[in-house]
Each structure stands twice: as structure tokens, then as C-alpha cells.
């Protein structure tokens, strides 16, 4: 049942918390987003957690109101674009403001009830078509089900996800706001002083240069992945984080390998195929056996093969599902 057909039933299986966390991880880090609809819808769902009836159902009006409120405040009041251009709901909200000559410095709550209804009505057809089902496939019906056909219009929370959101509402909301802000930054050059990006990259090392020399001089003169021979040219020999940096967020020699430029660029933020795990575990035994290295790189003291195996396993839980090989 595709959401484009206008309805999608809520998944009937019960869900463990781990599974729901996994769905959210995949949503935040992997799901395709060309504008902020999905975040706006999740915000609207969270805002209405306490408004659901005894069957955990919500009306289209409840969700629509919350969604349009978010969009009005972001697009009109704060002047923030929601995609490479303001299309769809953002454009409809802007048009409604123009038609009614509404002041841009008011928040949605401060508008007259009649004006709120007008803005909502202008955006509704677009929300019905593009927004209300937008999270359905990402969560495989494990977050909500919906029906937008004329007779029976509703949203329905999955009971376990509803409980989960009640329990972790604050954490999920902060995550949601963070990802929404990251996306808005991308589309609004004015605020692109990148506070978020700065905060995120403070832990990142300027250069992995020293590692390249250590590894190249002692152990590795061929690409860890494809076997192509390497030499001490900065351009051609790259230092690669075996478990992606975006997950592990630190530079430890036991997680660094040398690779050719093409493998490094191609692998990018992906996890290497399982057989490379065996290979790096073996390589690390050589590293540990080198007394000078133990002295040079303190991270080797606390390195254990089991730790790397666990990290590899956890990276799956963290959304690194795809296995890469050259
Ligand atoms: Zn290579």
C-alpha cells in the first residue's frame, strides 16, 4: 500500500524500543529530503501526541494546523527558505499572506482566527497531496497510518511508537530541531555562518598527515581496499577512516588505513564490506606488536579487537547499512 495511493495502514506488529530508535536513526540520517516537509510533519505529530483520541487517531485539521503554524513562523515570520526555492506549502503560505495583506512580523498564533483558517485552506490541498503521507514509507507504517480519502480522513499512531514518543519526547524533539536547523542553514545563505557545522567539527583534526607517514613508512605501501601501490604523494595517498568518521568522531590509528584516492573518495561515508574487518583486525595486530608505535600513538594501549568488532556491529544500528567494496 503506497502512501501515494492516499492511505496506508498502521503496521500491526508490536515494536521494541530498539527497533523504533533504529527507524528514527534511518529517518534522520538516511531518508531523502528535498525540503523540510518531513521534519514539519514529525513536529506536528509530536505536538499532537496528547490530542490523539482513544484509538490514537488525529484529524487532518489537527495535523494541518500544527504544520501550517510551523511553516508560517519559519517562512513568513523568520523569512527562511524551506528548499532551494519556496515551493509547495511554503509558496502557498506566502501567497495567502500576500492576498490578505497580513503583517509578516506576527506569529501564526497572533493572526485572527479567520486569517488562520484562510492560510490553512490555501495550504491544505498541497499538504494532502505531498505532506501527510510523507513519513509513511520512511517508517514503514511503524510511526503512523493514515487515510486521506474523502470519507475517512485520519492519522493513527502506532501504539508502541506513540508510547515511545511520549517517553522520549524531549530527546526526539531536540534531534528533530537540530536536523531541521541543519537543513534550513543549507537553503539560507544569510544565516550560513554555520554555527552548527562549527560545533560539529571542533573535534575534527586538521590533518591526518602524521598517520600517513607512520603507516606508509612501516606497513602499508598498497591501498588497503584495492591493492594498488601507493607512494608518499599527498594527492594520491589518502588516510581513510575504516569506520566512518561521522560515526566514530575520532582519529585512532587502529581505525586508519591508507587507500588510493579513488577508493577513499568512492568509499566516502560508507562502511567497508565485512571481509575488510578481518583484514584490519589482522593489520592492527602488527601495529600493536611495534613497540615504537605503542609509544607514539597512545590509542593503541586501549585498543582491543573486540572493541572494533563491536563498533562495526553498532555502526549498522547507527544507519551505516550499506557495505562498500571497491
Ligand atoms: Zn584503492
UniProtKB/TrEMBL annotation:
Record organism: Salimicrobium album
Origin: domain of life: Bacteria
Record-linked Gene3D superfamilies: 1.10.30.50
Subunit structure: Monomer. Binds crRNA and tracrRNA.
Alphabetized GO MF terms: endonuclease activity
Keyword vocabulary terms for this entry: Antiviral defense, DNA-binding, Endonuclease, Hydrolase, Magnesium, Manganese, Metal-binding, Nuclease, RNA-binding
Domain called HNH Cas9-type: residue spans: 173-325
Cofactor: Mg(2+)
Protein name in UniProt: 5-methylcytosine-specific restriction endonuclease McrA
InterPro entries noted in UniProt: HNH_CAS9, HNH_nuc
Pfam families in the cross-refs: HNH_4
CDD domains in the cross-refs: HNHc
Amino acid at each position: 500500500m503506497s502512501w501515494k495511493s492516499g492511505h496506508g495502514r498502521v503496521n500491526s506488529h508490536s515494536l521494541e524500543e530498539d527497533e523504533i530508535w533504529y527507524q528514527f536513526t534511518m529517518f534522520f540520517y538516511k531518508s531523502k529530503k528535498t525540503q523540510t516537509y518531513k521534519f514539519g510533519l514529525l513536529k506536528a505529530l509530536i505536538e499532537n501526541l496528547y490530542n490523539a483520541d482513544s484509538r490514537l487517531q488525529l484529524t487532518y485539521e489537527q495535523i494541518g494546523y500544527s504544520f501550517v503554524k510551523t511553516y508560517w513562523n519559519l517562512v513568513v515570520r523568520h523569512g527562511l527558505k524551506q528548499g532551494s526555492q519556496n515551493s509547495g506549502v511554503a509558496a502557498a503560505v506566502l501567497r495567502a499572506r500576500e492576498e490578505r495583506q497580513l503583517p509578516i512580523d506576527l506569529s501564526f498564533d497572533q493572526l485572527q482566527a479567520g486569517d488562520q483558517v484562510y492560510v490553512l485552506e490555501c495550504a491544505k490541498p498541497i499538504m494532502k497531496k505531498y505532506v501527510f503521507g510523507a513519513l509513511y514509507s520512511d517508517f514503514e507504517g511503524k510511526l503512523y497510518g493514515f487515510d486521506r480519502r474523502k470519507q475517512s480522513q485520519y492519522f493513527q499512531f502506532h501504539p508502541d511508537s506513540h508510547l515511545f514518543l511520549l517517553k522520549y519526547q524531549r530527546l526526539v524533539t531536540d534531534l528533530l530541531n537540530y536536523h531541521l536547523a541543519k537543513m534550513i542553514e543549507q537553503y539560507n545563505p544569510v544565516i550560513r555562518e554555520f554555527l552548527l557545522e562549527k560545533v560539529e567539527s571542533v573535534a575534527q583534526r586538521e590533518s591526518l598527515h602524521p598517520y600517513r607517514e607512520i603507516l606508509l613508512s612501516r606497513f602499508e605501501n598498497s591501498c588497503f581496499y584495492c591493492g594498488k601501490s601507493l607512494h608518499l604523494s599527498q594527492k594520491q595517498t589518502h588516510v581513510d577512516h575504516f569506520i566512518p568518521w561521522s560515526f566514530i568522531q575520532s582519529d585512532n590509528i587502529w581505525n586508519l588505513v591508507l587507500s588510493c584516492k579513488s577508493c577513499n573518495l568512492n568509499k566516502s561515508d560508507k562502511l567497508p564490506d565485512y571481509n575488510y574487518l578481518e583484514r584490519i583486525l589482522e593489520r592492527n595486530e602488527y601495529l600493536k606488536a611495534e613497540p615504537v608505535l605503542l609509544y607514539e600513538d597512545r590509542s593503541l594501549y586501549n585498543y582491543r579487537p573486540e572493541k572494533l568488532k563491536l563498533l562495526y556491529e553498532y555502526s549498522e544500528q547507527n544507519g551505516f547499512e550499506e557495505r562498500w567494496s571497491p
